[in-house]
């Protein structure tokens, strides 16, 4: 989690340094601080440019594989919702775990991107959420969920009611939101190796993308983009030699 906290620290610097000249040096999704320049903004971000297993990707050319089901032991709740200027993030109570690829990972937080970062067979989705998990050895596993336009998403409705409008703001959750509320019923997934999709773009992240999208209303997507003020998706990166298992 150390690496994820680093990027959050950067977000707070961005907030604290608003309207200062140094702001241009902080990462974002467009202009001088945009994805094409992340690697040059800070020495610590060099993987964003020279990594060969970067995320997100276009998932395609699937390799048939005997993927074991992910075992979910989710028990907790989202405790607070944060607008860090790059995404809306819900931090999670300790003790919710998954078992995947022979390892136990604990759910730390989930957050949202619009439009989706990963694409599937070239298809972009209006939203994507990332459930970020960490193992005791510090390695990360992300479960990604794609959203398609349809019925209102109940879990998201509870979250959005408390979504902080201002970057840097954090609100304690008043209503109970469980990670399960945002996952599809069918937990079949694609798997590949990737990275954080934000600086420092650290590699060695186990990615599991749910095949079944869940619905979100058009209004819910609009509410999110209204608060973010900008798209918050990194463009897809070269797949290189990586297989995408299914
Ligand atoms: Zn993400």
Q: Low-confidence segments, ≥5 residues, pLDDT <50?
A: 1-24
The CATH topology is given as Carbonic Anhydrase II
Could you give the order of the helices and strands? HHHEEEEEEEEEEHEEEEHE
Give me the secondary-structure category.
Answer: alpha/beta
Percent of sequence in beta strands: 25-35%
Mean pLDDT: 91
What is the second-level CATH architecture?
Roll
At the first level of CATH, the class is Alpha Beta
Number of extended strands: 15
Envelope shape: globular
Distance between the termini: 27 Å
Biggest sheet: strands, sense, closure?
11 strands, mixed
The CATH homologous superfamily name equals: Alpha carbonic anhydrase
Number of domains: 1
Question: How large, in whole angstroms, is the Cα Rg?
Answer: 17 Å
Topology record:
Elements: H1 2-16, H2 38-41, H3 47-50, E1 58-59, E2 62-63, E3 71-73, E4 78-83, E5 88-92, E6 97-100, E7 103-113, E8 119-120, E9 127-134, E10 140-149, H4 154-161, E11 170-172, E12 189-195, E13 203-210, E14 214-216, H5 218-228, E15 244-245
Parallel strand pairs: 1-8, 2-15, 10-13, 10-14
Antiparallel strand pairs: 3-6, 4-5, 4-11, 5-7, 6-7, 7-9, 9-10, 12-13
């Amino acid at each position: 989690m150390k690496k994820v906290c680093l990027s959050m620290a950067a977000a707070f610097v961005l907030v604290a340094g608003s309207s200062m000249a140094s702001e241009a040096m902080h990462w974002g999704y467009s202009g001088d601080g945009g994805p094409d320049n992340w690697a040059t903004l800070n020495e610590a971000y060099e993987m964003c440019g020279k990594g060969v297993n970067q995320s997100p990707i276009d998932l395609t050319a699937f390799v048939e594989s005997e993927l074991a089901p992910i075992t979910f032991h989710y028990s907790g709740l989202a405790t607070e919702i944060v607008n860090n200027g790059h995404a809306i993030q819900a931090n999670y109570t300790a003790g919710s775990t998954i078992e995947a690829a022979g390892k136990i990972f604990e759910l730390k937080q989930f957050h949202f991107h619009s439009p989706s970062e990963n694409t599937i067979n070239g298809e972009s989705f209006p939203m994507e959420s990332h459930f970020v998990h960490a193992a005791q050895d510090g390695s990360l596993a992300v479960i990604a969920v794609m959203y398609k336009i349809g019925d209102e998403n109940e879990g998201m409705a509870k979250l959005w009611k408390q979504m902080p409008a201002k970057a840097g703001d954090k609100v304690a959750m008043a209503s109970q939101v469980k990670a399960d509320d945002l996952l599809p019923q069918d937990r079949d997934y694609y798997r590949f190796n990737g990275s954080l999709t934000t600086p420092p773009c650290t590699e060695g992240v186990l990615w599991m993308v749910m095949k079944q999208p869940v619905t979100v209303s058009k209004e819910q997507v609009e509410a999110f983009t209204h608060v973010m003020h900008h798209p918050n998706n990194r463009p897809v990166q070269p797949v290189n030699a990586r297989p995408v298992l299914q």
